[in-house]
Amino acid sequence: MLRSVFRFAIGCAIGLLLWWYGTPLYGQFISRVARACLASSSKFAGVALRVSDRHIDVFGGTLPPAQIPFDQLTYNVVLLLGLFATVPGIWKDRNVGRLIAAIAFLSVTHVLATVINVMATYATRLGVWSNQHFNGFEQDLWTAADYTYRLAGMFAIAFACWYFAVQPSVARKAA
Amino acid sequence: MRRFRFLAVFFALLFLLEISLLFDPIDRQVIRPFSSVVAAASGGLLRLIGQQVNISGTVIAGTCLAIDIHNGCNGVEAMMFVVAAVIAFPTSWPQRLVAALAGAVILQVANLIRVVTLYLVGCYHRTWFEAFHLGVWQSLMFGVAVAFFVLWSRRTKLVHAP
């Protein structure tokens, strides 16, 4: 038990350093993929995303400029690494592969979270522009998606990655 | 296959619980009064350790910092996480109820420590506040929630659906 707590703390510390110092570089990668996703929507034709320290600036075309708090969408990596660190033999080939797969999956969700956050920002926080370009249903939809991700969804995703990948005893019991 | 089922039920319940927070009557009648209790308890603890703070509704205000307790800082999100996980787990309803209550108590104790330490970090090491607010304490809260669920699920008698 104490060993697991210690391992969890070490994993969280590594995740925290990675998140804190890696966010600007990681943001470059995520914003490129997110831009491609956003550009497929006619509302966001010509959109550009630029990483500015821990934020992403959104601009381009006829869009009013907005800023996305990118670091607030990605800190579930701290929990993910903390949970994976509790797994005995984490450096064995099979577990390393699972960890890489989990991080890759998490990155996909970070792209989606960035797209959702941009949508929610433009749908609800830009006054007249928002009301002209998004109807009530769209505004509710993007707000709900952004809210559920940021409140607990992002941690549920990290938990699910770990639970599914490397928690066979719990999973067996749940089965 | 049942792992998928557990995760599907878990995510569906968590989504419903989170969405419920977006409804104004629930926010006004349940969440804000609850957040006020969290603020009062945290403020009381801060006074006990010598901090001069005033509590007004969900706000704890001191000479160096004011913090507003709302969703994301009141521990409700981690409580919902545990409730969704124990309901998704195949066991009896009395066991689920006990686990949900026990998990809520443990998480609220952890949340009190979170609010107090965040206030102190904000006062004395302002540059660390953001990292502690997001990266450290949110991860610890959900780490506690996951640990509680894992320990409980390992000791709980399974009930299989007929």
Short recap of the structure:
The complex is a heterodimer of chains A (175) and B (162). Chain A has helices at 2-39, 76-85, 93-124, 127-133, 136-166, 168-174; strands at residues 48-52, 55-59, 66-68. With 175 residues, chain A is mainly alpha-helical.
Could you walk me through the main structural features you see in this protein, from its secondary elements to its overall organization?
The complex is a heterodimer of chains A (about 180) and B (about 160). Chain A has six helices and three strands, in the order αβββααααα. Chain A has helices spanning about 1-40, 75-85, 95-125, 125-135, 135-165, 170-175; strands spanning about 50, 55-60, 65-70. In chain A, strands 1-2-3 form a three-stranded antiparallel sheet, covered by helices on one side. Chain A is mostly helical. In chain A, α1 (about 1-40) packs antiparallel against α2 (about 75-85). Chain B is mainly alpha-helical and about 160 residues long. Chain B has one domain (about 1-155). Chain B has helices at about 1-20, 25-50, 75-90, 95-125, 130-155, and strands at about 55, 60, 65-70. In chain B, strands 1-2-3 form a three-stranded antiparallel sheet, with helices on one face. The longest helix of chain B has about 30 residues, at about 95-125. The radius of gyration of chain B is 17 Å and the shape is elongated. In chain B, about 40% of the residues are buried. At the A-B interface, α1, α2, α5 and α6 of A face α1, α3 and α5 of B.
Give the averaged pLDDT of chain B, no decimals.
90
Lateral arrangement of strands in the main beta sheet of chain B: 1-2-3
Provide the gyration radius of chain B in Å: 17 Å
Order of helices and strands of chain A: HEEEHHHHH
Total beta-strand segments of chain B: 3
Radius of gyration of chain A: 18 Å
Oligomer: heterodimer
Portion in helices of chain A? over 70%
Individual helix count of chain B: 5
Instruction: Kindly report the greatest chain-chain contact and the residue count on each side.
Output: A-B, 38 and 39 residues
Mean pLDDT of chain A: 88
- The amount of beta strand of chain B, in percent, is 5-15%
What does the main sheet of chain A amount to? 3 strands, antiparallel
Structural class of chain B: mainly alpha
